[in-house]
Amino acid sequence: MKKRSKRINVVLAMFMTVAILWSNSLGVYAKECPSPYSPTGYHDFSKHNMKERAGTIEWDHDVYVGKRSGVAVYQKCHVVVPFQWCETSCCFCDMPGGEGRHAHSGNKSHSLGCKD
């Protein structure tokens, strides 16, 4: 019986160690928010602030537009997807944080530029 209780104590000690380390790592991200509007009293880094343009991704593809004299006709479509840098901040006090700087894609634009 003593061997069994030692194993249980070791397992419990390991579980408590993991729990303490995990809660301490969460504490780094869950700092207290000074805003009176924060319902939990902690920062909520879900506000996305769009910053400068990051660039674009572009490509061409053929688009079927119909038949002419029984032959399928295709036109080139040029697609442009703009990207913009974004930084997250607290919804309540605007303190920067969370996942930090990342890119968001904008609306795709398609332009048919076919010259017969």
Could you write a compact summary of the structure shown?
The chain is of the alpha+beta class. Helix content is 24%, strand content 47%.
Helix content: 10-25%
Secondary-structure element order, N to C: HEEEE
Could you describe the largest sheet, including whether it forms a barrel? 4 strands, antiparallel
Shape: elongated
Q: Compute the number of strand runs.
A: 4
Instruction: Report the β-strand fraction as a percent range.
Output: over 45%
Low-confidence stretches: 24-28
> What structural category do the secondary elements indicate?
alpha+beta
Our measurement of the CA-to-CA distance between the termini, rounded to an integer number of angstroms, reads 89 Å
CA radius of gyration = 28 Å
Put simply, the count of helices is 1
Mean pLDDT: 78
Describe the protein's architecture and organization.
The chain has 116 residues and is α+β, with helices and mostly antiparallel strands. It has a domain at 45-112. 24% of the residues lie in helices and 47% in strands. Strands 1, 2, 3 and 4 form a four-stranded antiparallel sheet that branches. Strand 2 (71-89) and strand 3 form a beta hairpin. It is elongated and about 85 Å long. The N and C termini lie far apart (89 Å). The model is unreliable at 24-28 (pLDDT under 50).
